[in-house]
Amino acid sequence: MHSVIPTHSSRAPTGLQTAGLVAAALAASLLYVQARQRRAESQNPPQGKFVDVDGVRLHYRDLGEGQPLVLLHGNGLFATDFELSGLIDNATKHHRVIAFDRPGFGYSERPGHTSWTPEAQARLLYKALHQIGVERPIVLGHSWGTLVALAMALDFPRYVRGVTLVSGYYYPSLRPDVPLMAAPAIPGLGHLLRYTLAPLLGRMMWPLLVRRMFAPAPVPERFGQLPKWMSLRPSQLGASAAETAMMIPAARRLSQRYGELTMPLAVIAGNGDRIVDSEHNALRLHQEIEHSELIVETGAGHMPHYADPARVLDAVARIEAALVPGAPSTRPATMAHSTTLH
In what order do the strands lie in the sheet with 95-100? Predict the structure, then answer.
């Protein structure tokens, strides 16, 4: 009988070898993510214009003619979302539509020396709108964009004519999803994650995340045209994570000022929203602001602007009608609608 002496190749990897494997995997992830980013940007070049404000380069679409309507997208997306939903096409029939990529999203810059709170974004966009010749707009925000719309209305009440809020988070609440979703914003570790593993994990989770956004309604086919890897670029993941981290304190801070709002305001929500609780947010805001209108889309989730963009714009039209001198200022009744997505 011969004894078997383990050779070096049969031993478990040493700590140094494991570290080398991890480093190699991260390097491979980095190269793959960079390649996907280059490909995404090459296939989806900027379609709008650029404006430089306070050293920040912002990308925006400027389409149509008429009374100005400013569109502010939600977290993780960019202005293309409003195009795919049909909102831009419908709005340009009667409005000059300005749809921004908010700082850090799409093709807009997000310098790291600024904390891009809703108030900071509102100030930047206010200056940008003045610079491109937009006066007295109605501002429509979706999801995180509603916080920016509210900040703009609160800080520049003589400038903003009216506000339409779609699926917003208006009041602080317990959000167990925040720590995980905010991880890519952690200094050091977050930087490593968003350039290596986070985009890959995000791509794997993309179908689940999208279904949750639209549930209980099905995901419309046109949303599939959104270029996923534009949203999964490291810079945009960093912006998304940072906004997730500041969402609760921003809502707490702004909610203390909602009583200052005097302009016409429409609040739109899906009654099946699984991202933000419509009763805690939309209904509560409607109850607090007496001159607001509440529109609840039955069977819709977090993306009611895909359900019926014309209906969203009907709310904008009612705001415009309320601004006509002599128009009645009575509190609009709560409206509920059935929803079907195609």
Answer: 49-53, 56-63, 95-100, 67-72, 138-142, 162-166, 265-270, 292-298, 335-338
Q: Helices 118-131 and 144-155, interaxial angle, to 10°?
A: 70
AA letter at 156: F
- Residue pair 80/59 in contact (Cβ under 8 Å)? The answer is no
Q: What is the mean pLDDT of each run of 10 residues along the chain (342 residues)?
A: 52 74 87 95 97 97 97 97 97 97 98 94 98 97 98 98 98 87 87 93 96 97 96 96 96 98 97 95 97 95 94 96 69 48 36
Q: Which two tokens stand for residue 282?
A: 């939309």
| Partners of residue 51 on adjacent β-strands | 58
Q: For 129, how many CA atoms within 13 A lie in the half-sphere containing its CB?
A: 27
CA distances from 57 to 125, 234, 241, 280 (A): 11, 18, 21, 36
Pairing type for strands 162-166 and 265-270 reads parallel
Between strands 49-53 and 56-63, the pairing is antiparallel
Task: Report residue 126 as tokens.
Answer: 């206010």
